[in-house]
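Our consortium's second objective concerns turning raw sequence data into structural hypotheses that experimental partners can test. To show how far this objective has progressed, the report includes one record in full. It was chosen at random from the queue rather than selected for favorable results. The single chain below, 242 residues long, was entered without modification.
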Amino acid sequence: MSKDLANNQTANSTSSDPKQTLKQLIEGNIHYAKKCCCKFGKLKTKQSPKVTLLTCCDSRVPQNLFDMDGLNELFVVKNIGNQFRNSEGSVKYPIIHLRTPLLIVLGHTGCGAIKAALSDNRGEDDAIQRELIGLVNIIKLADQTLAITKVSDENKLALYAQANVDYQIQRILSDFNLKNKVEKQELYVIGMMFDIHCVYGKEAAHTYITNINGVTDGAEIKKMAIVKNLGKNTVDALVKRL
């Protein structure tokens, strides 16, 4: 087992009481149901989310990071390292059948999946290895094109995660059905990085736009109509690549 995964398991085993956590979950749901049960009347037969969100299952990447409650707004797909092929059907379903016009591929700084893919994970469970192997190949590709060896560890992980977002978008755009929707402007594929470690900016928890429909040049992204409504100051601050 990789040291990062082992350390995470040790930390969780010493800091979490499962009985107390289950109690917290049930009490939390009771509180939630009291507030929100009336909202489900119109949702019993259909859903109409605005966004398909493909993101990492890291617990530090919360579903509500966009300050949306998630009820009929976000169709969320999570897996190790926000990989398209590992959840292809789950990603394509809301786009094809629910017609979500935005697909966000969200990576994050300090990604544990990237760390694990960088380490010797041959002793890992077979299923975990199968999910990590795609990231290993992406890291090899990134090493060929990026000057990653000369930066800090935090920036190195962020660069790998950013390259992974780019790669996942390439895979998405290589799919005929999804590419066709992008060409018809029925779908926009937005690459983002969630900054936990203040790598992209001075404050944590911001998301930065790094890729739109395969375009990674910041100056070109800033010209796109899809971002114009954000306002120049926001675009200048949050369209950023390492």
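The partners drew two points from this record. Residues 46-238 form a domain with the Beta-carbonic Anhydrase; Chain A fold (CATH 3.40.1050.10). Residues 1 and 124 are 5 Å apart (CA to CA). Both points have been shared with the crystallography group to help prioritize constructs.
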